Amino acid sequence: MSGKDTSMTIKHAFAKLPAQDSARARQFYSEHFGFEPHREVHGHLTYEIAGVELVIFPSSGKPSGDHDQFGLIVDDLEAELARLKSEGVEFPRFEMDGVREDGVLDLGFMQAAWFRDSEGNLISIAQRNST
Predict the structure, then answer these.
(1) Which residues of the chain register pLDDT less than 50?
(2) To the nearest 10°, the Cα dihedral for 110, 111, 112, 113?
(3) What residues contact residue 11 under an 8 Å CB cut-off, 6+ apart?
(4) How far apart are CA 37 and CA 131, in angstroms?
(5) Is 86 helix (H, G, I), strand (E, B) or coil?
(6) pTM given for the model
(7) Domain 15-128 belongs to what topology?
C-alpha cells in the first residue's frame, strides 16, 4: 500500500447529453415531460430532474445510441408508455432475454423500455416492482 490518498473531493455531479439543436431538444423535453431548464447559458440547457442535474449541451457529434444514456424511473410504466406513444414518441424493440412482444423488458423486479429523444440520445424509462 502506497499510503497515497487518491480520493477526490467531489462538489457536484451531473449527467450530460449532446444536442445538435438545443432549441429542438428544449422543445422535446418540454412537450413530452414538462421539463423546463432552470438555467440556459450559450445553448447549454440545465434541468433538475428528480434531484439529478441534467445538462443538454450543443454538440456537432452524434450520440452512439448503442446504450441508454439517461434513465427515468416512474410509478406506472404502462401509463407513461401509452401517454408518450400517443404523443408520437417511438419505442424501439431490442432483442434480449426478457423482452416482451410490446418491446418492454420485464425482469420481474423491474420493467423498462427505451426511446430516443429529438437528438438521438437513448433514454430508458423504467418501473421498479416490489419483490
Answers:
(1) none
(2) 170
(3) none
(4) 36
(5) helix
(6) 0.85
(7) 2,3-Dihydroxybiphenyl 1,2-Dioxygenase; domain 1 (3.10.180)
> Grid coordinates in use for 77?
410504466
Q: Which triple of cell numbers denotes residue 35?
A: 421539463
Sign for the CA dihedral angle at 127, 88, 40, 9 comes to positive
Q: Where are the domains of the chain?
A: 15-128
Q: Which residue has the cell 450543443?
A: 58
**The sheet that has 110-116: what strands, in order across it?**
70-73, 122-128, 110-116, 105-106
Question: Residue 1 is placed in which grid cell?
Answer: 500500500
Each residue's pLDDT tens digit, 87-108: 999 999 988 899 998 999 999 9
Are the C-beta atoms of 74 and 125 separated by less than 8 Å? yes
